[in-house]
Structures are given as structure tokens and as C-alpha cells.
Design brief:
Layout: H1 56-59, H2 85-88, E1 97-105, E2 110-118, E3 127-141, E4 144-154, E5 159-169, E6 172-181, E7 184-196, E8 199-209, E9 214-226, E10 229-239, E11 247-258, E12 262-269, E13 274-282, E14 287-296, E15 301-312, E16 317-324, E17 328-336, E18 342-351, E19 356-365
Protein name: Mitochondrial import receptor subunit TOM40
Family: Belongs to the Tom40 family.
Keywords: Membrane, Mitochondrion, Mitochondrion outer membrane, Protein transport, Transmembrane, Transmembrane beta strand, Transport
């Protein structure tokens, strides 16, 4: 937990059921141009963003690959899977109970993390977790170094989560994600992503079981059309003997409209009656407003959220808050305790209808 946060309250409307839906394994939320970077004493906020620093090849004077210009993929639209991530990342992710995170860099390539969670609301999340991150030396730019290996182990439950992200070529990125629970394979996903300056293609194969003839294949394509505006679509095909006919298919459409200080994201699965819209407005360099709306006509359900993020760089404060149409109010506050490498966090969530209230306190050592 780089931000001392976890999954918040308020449930989203049910999406159309798919067979063995793939897991999300995007290296940087909402931005396909970021991949891996070198390690410093900083909590990793996402698989491809560990911090900035220098690697061994630089410190020893050894030659490295020529850096790709930072703006070469500035108009790359990313994927439909990450279409709404930029908005979702600005909403608070409240947690309850106590949380302690210690991030310790072992070298320029290794970083270890220790997480202790104490929660009475969700005992399954309580306990100790050990994480390890490794980044390699194949450098494409100041913010992209590969390969990246991430792992997290929970001794109490025997759970193991792992990711491998590598970029064999400038336009080709491979991601492998696996989840093990008590020694059994829970889910596996392999993604091949191909990038161009104004287009992005990703093909994902998830949870393939040849013995039971089951699995999921996802094809995802986005293309920049005018300026920063982009359109695309995705097709999901799931195979399972328990599905009538042996398989099902879902077709999705996506679009992004963007300006200098705003962004509107739209996605839909028309045949299933599911729609999703999100909007971001940057009022100042410190204050951003966001809104999100999901509708599922087949389930007759909908959920809307509005929120904000307010950063105060001089004092080290970051505030996030949201309220949804189910009258769930959530907020988080983070304070960097400079000059010490600590971040203090407070969290609160109130469900007005169910009269449920949750509070959390966290501390991150970086």
C-alpha cells in the first residue's frame, strides 16, 4: 500500500457475466506509455511506477540503450481496460482498522515491503504480507526499465500473487500475472501488447484449462483519431462446458475525449445493456474534480460517484473524498512527515442508509 489504502466501500453495478473474466494487470493505470523504472526508497504505487533513480549500468559507466524520446508515445491511447483508470485513481480508497507498511530498498534493482493489516471488518485481509520488487537494466527511457518482477506472499493464508512485465522490443510488451491460493492456481493471465504512436493492440489469454476446455480470450484495440481523442473496442470470448452452447462472447466499445484540463471516457457493451462514463476536470494544479457513472440495464442497477482530489505540496497534505448515489461517503487524508521518510494516513467511510461506519489509520515507512 504505497498510499496506505485498500478497497473502499460502495459496490458498483453488476457487469454482464463472463466466463473466467481476465484479471487487470496494467503496468500504469490509465497510461500505456509508462512501464518500469529504477528503484529508490519510495513506495510503488503501481507495477510500472517504482520511483526514479539510477541503475548499476549508469553508476559503473557501462553503456546503456539509447533513450526513446519521452513524447514518442504521448498520443498512444492505451487500452479499453484502462480507459477509466485515470478517474478512478483520484477517488479515495478507504480502509479500516490499522495498517503499517515498511518499504525498504535493498539495491538499485530490488525493493522489499512489509505490510501488517489489522481489520475486524474483513478478517481475510488481516495479517502480514511480504512483497518483493525487481527491475532490470533494459532501459527504453528515463521512466521505462525492464524486466519488472513483482511478488507478494501472505504466510497465514498461503496466498501468492506474482507479475512479470517485460518489453522485448520497443513496441512489444508482455505481461504475465498469476495468483496462487493455498498452493492451487487460482488465476493466470498472459497479455501481449503492441504499441504504436497513435494505436494500441492487446491480446490476452486467461485461465486456459485444456482438460476442461475452458478459458478466456480478449482482443483490445484503441486508436487516436483527432488530437487526443481516441476510439476503440474489445471482444471477449469465454469457453466453458457449463455455458449453454459451450461459449459466450461480449463486444465492447470505448471512446475518450480529452482537452488540456478535462477528460471524458465512455465505454459500453450494447448487447448487454451496460454503460460506463467517467469525467475528470482539472481546476488548478492542486485541485481536480471527478465523476463516474455506471449503468447495467440487464440488472436494473446503476451507481454514480462524484469526488475530488486536493493536493497541498508545500505542507505535504493530500485529501480525497467521494459520495455516491447509495449515500456512501468516503474520504482519505495523507500527510508526508518531512524531513522523515514517513507518510501518515487517515481514512473514513460512512454508509448513511445502513448506518455503517468504518475508520482506519495507517503509517508508511519509505
Amino acid at each position: 500500500m504505497g498510499n496506505a489504502s485498500s478497497t473502499g466501500g460502495g459496490s458498483a453495478p453488476n457487469q454482464p457475466q463472463q466466463s473466467a473474466a481476465p484479471m487487470s494487470a496494467s503496468p500504469a493505470a490509465g497510461d500505456s506509455t509508462t512501464g518500469g523504472v529504477t528503484l529508490v526508497p519510495k513506495s510503488p504505487s503501481s507495477p510500472g511506477q517504482v520511483g526514479a533513480g539510477t541503475d548499476d549500468s549508469q553508476s559503473s559507466g557501462a553503456p546503456i540503450l539509447a533513450a526513446v524520446p519521452e513524447d514518442k508515445y504521448a498520443l498512444n491511447p492505451g487500452t479499453n481496460e484502462t480507459l477509466h483508470n485515470k478517474v478512478k485513481d483520484l477517488f479515495p480508497t478507504p480502509f479500516d482498522g490499522g495498517k503499517l507498511v515498511v518499504n525498504k530498498p535493498l539495491s538499485n534493482h530490488f525493493q522489499a515491503s512489509h505490510t501488517v493489516v489489522m481489520s475486524s471488518i474483513d478478517p481475510s485481509q488481516s495479517g502480514y504480507k511480504y512483497g518483493l520488487t525487481f527491475v532490470g537494466t533494459k532501459k527504453y527511457s528515463e521512466s521505462e526499465v525492464y524486466p519488472i518482477l513483482l511478488g507478494e506472499f501472505s504466510p497465514a493464508g498461503g496466498d501468492l500473487n506474482g507479475q512479470i512485465i517485460h518489453q522485448p522490443a520497443e513496441q512489444w510488451r508482455v505481461k504475465l500475472v498469476s495468483q496462487l491460493k493455498q498452493g492451487k492456481n487460482l488465476a493466470t493471465q498472459l497479455t501481449n501488447e503492441f504499441r504504436w504512436p497513435k494505436a494500441n493492440l492487446a491480446v490476452t489469454v486467461a485461465n486456459v484449462d485444456l482438460e476442461h476446455r475452458s478459458g478466456t480470450v480478449v482482443a483490445d484495440y484503441m486508436h487516436t483519431v483527432f488530437g487526443r481523442h481516441a476510439v476503440g473496442g474489445m471482444a471477449i470470448v469465454g469457453c466453458n462446458p457449463r455455458i449453454p452452447g459451450g461459449y459466450n462472447a461480449v463486444l465492447g466499445l470505448g471512446a475518450r475525449l480529452a482537452g488540456d484540463k478535462w477528460q471524458l471516457n465512455l465505454s459500453a457493451t450494447p448487447l448487454h445493456g451496460s454503460f460506463h462514463a467517467s469525467y475528470l476536470r482539472k481546476l488548478t494544479n492542486e485541485l481536480q474534480l471527478v465523476s463516474d457513472w455506471e449503468v447495467d440495464l440487464s440488472q436494473r442497477a446503476s451507481l454514480g460517484n462524484i469526488g475530488y482530489q486536493w493536493e497541498m505540496p508545500k505542507s505535504g497534505f493530500t485529501f480525497k473524498a467521494r459520495i455516491d448515489t447509495e449515500w456512501v461517503v468516503a474520504a482519505t487524508m495523507e500527510k508526508k512527515l518531512a524531513p522523515f521518510p514517513f507518510t501518515f494516513a487517515l481514512s473514513g467511510l460512512a454508509h448513511q442508509v445502513k448506518h455503517q461506519y468504518r475508520f482506519g489509520i495507517g503509517l508508511v515507512f519509505q
